[in-house]
């Protein structure tokens, strides 16, 4: 019998978190091999709220509301809304796939068989940036649309009666059911068939305003007005001194967490290479380890800890398991204590193996030959950048829009 995974669809943020988890399982090698992604995502959500690693281009933040606004204007009922929205999204894929700029187009290869629709990927961010005014998941919105139409109709009738009686608008009370920000720029003529990924100036200004006004204390809002910075990590930003002290402190924690946990990923892959007896992979991972040890900020590491994690988790109402925090703390202590010999330390190897086996159970690559065969040789082998790659693309989209005609 095949395994299944079920969750309760409480809100868009929950759904976005689950989509990220499911996206990892669809990859050949799950990226969060050692289960530290919850801390990574806490930092990413703090720095760049509304973003996700599976987002690609910024104009999707307008494509999605445009599609649903058109369907609402047509009076599309709840029963047909999901199917018709999907049809429009597939039409959008076709148009974008034929445009000059194809980088970041959802479903270029899948076409009509697209499984992950852009609307599901951007839904949570649309709410966080207050572009989406309906407070609920995409499925809840689709199911509620008939009631929304009725609420609007009732309000229109009440407004008409109030005018006839010579009463002010305050006399009717309440507001119509608003689903999208009333200031969203209009779609281009012929949308979605005429769509491109390039933002117009008005569109870029609208999105920039939404990010800055809804997330004024975020690093995202701080960085948007600054010149583009083509660096690999946010803590390398040339305008770091212009960030708040709190932001700089958290970037310091992010840097050291990324540094240290990258070493755990290297050891994990090195152990698998040895288990598979691949001389080529062993050599490659040992070179990764050598470079990592050379780059490690040991001075910063010796004065650093994880006391900031739980307060951050509390602020985001996100659970971090004691097992996860304990694993990270034990690994950091081993990095401090073992020096350059950590890749050969039995205690470190046992920690990595027990952590992976605890997380994966029967799917562990240490105990399941089939899982080991499916290993690419470099599972999860990259430093955390906390969605900086995605954010750089977003900021570039904004700049190009604001600087264009």
Quick structural gist:
The protein is an all-alpha fold.
List keywords for this structure.
mainly alpha; 405 residues; 2 domains; disordered N terminus; elongated
Question: Can you walk me through this structure?
Answer:
The chain is mainly alpha-helical and 405 residues long. The protein folds into two domains: 33-50 and 243-388, no CATH class; 60-198, no CATH class. It has 16 helices and no strands. Helix 3 crosses helix 4 and helix 9 crosses helix 13. It is elongated, with a radius of gyration of 24 Å.
Which overall shape is indicated by the principal axes computed on the Cα atoms?
elongated
- Return the string of H and E elements: HHHHHHHHHHHHHHHH
Derived from helix and strand composition plus strand pairing, the structural class reads mainly alpha
Cα-atom radius of gyration: 24 Å
Q: Helical segment tally?
A: 16
Main sheet overview: none
pLDDT below 50 for ≥5 consecutive residues: which ranges?
A: 1-10, 19-30, 171-175
Distance between the termini: 57 Å
What is the share of helical residues? Answer: 55-70%
Count of distinct strands? 0
Strand and helix map with partners:
Blueprint: H1 12-26, H2 37-47, H3 60-73, H4 78-97, H5 118-128, H6 138-164, H7 201-214, H8 219-223, H9 245-276, H10 279-295, H11 298-302, H12 309-315, H13 322-338, H14 346-360, H15 369-373, H16 388-403
């Amino acid at each position: 019998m095949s395994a299944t995974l079920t969750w309760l669809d409480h809100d868009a943020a929950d759904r976005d978190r689950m989509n990220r988890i499911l996206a990892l399982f669809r990859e050949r090698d799950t990226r969060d091999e050692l289960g530290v992604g919850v801390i990574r995502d806490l930092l990413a959500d703090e720095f760049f709220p509304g973003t996700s690693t599976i987002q690609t281009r910024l104009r999707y933040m307008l494509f999605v509301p445009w599609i649903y606004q058109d369907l609402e204007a047509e009076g599309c009922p709840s029963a047909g809304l999901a199917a018709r929205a999907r049809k429009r999204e597939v039409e959008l894929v076709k148009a974008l796939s034929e445009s000059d700029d194809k980088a970041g187009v959802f479903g270029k290869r899948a076409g009509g068989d697209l499984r992950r629709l852009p609307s599901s990927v951007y839904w949570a961010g649309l709410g966080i940036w207050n572009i989406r005014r309906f407070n609920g998941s995409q499925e809840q919105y689709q199911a509620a649309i008939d009631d929304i139409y009725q609420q609007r109709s009732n309000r229109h009738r009440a407004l008409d009666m109030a005018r006839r009686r010579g009463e002010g608008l305050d006399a009717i009370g309440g507001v119509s059911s608003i689903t999208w920000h009333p200031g969203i720029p209009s779609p281009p003529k012929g949308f979605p068939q005429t769509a491109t990924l390039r933002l117009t100036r008005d569109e870029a200004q609208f999105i920039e305003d939404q990010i800055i006004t809804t997330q004024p204390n975020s690093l995202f809002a701080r960085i948007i007005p600054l010149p583009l910075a083509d660096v690999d990590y946010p803590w390398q930003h040339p305008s770091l001194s212009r960030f708040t002290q709190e932001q700089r402190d958290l970037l310091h924690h992010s840097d050291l967490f990324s540094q240290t946990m990258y070493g755990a990923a290297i050891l994990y892959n090195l152990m698998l290479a040895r288990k598979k007896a691949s001389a080529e992979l062993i050599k490659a991972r040992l070179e990764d380890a050598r470079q990592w040890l050379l780059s490690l900020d040991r001075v910063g590491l010796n004065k650093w800890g994880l006391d900031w994690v739980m307060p951050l988790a509390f602020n985001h109402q996100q659970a971090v398991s004691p097992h996860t925090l304990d694993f990270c703390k034990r690994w950091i202590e081993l990095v401090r204590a073992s020096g350059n010999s950590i890749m050969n330390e039995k205690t470190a190897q046992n920690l990595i193996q027990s952590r992976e086996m605890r997380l994966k159970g029967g799917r562990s690559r240490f105990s399941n030959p089939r899982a080991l065969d499916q290993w690419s040789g470099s599972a999860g082998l990259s430093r955390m950048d906390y969605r900086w790659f995605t954010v750089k693309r977003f900021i570039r989209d904004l700049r190009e829009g604001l600087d264009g005609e």
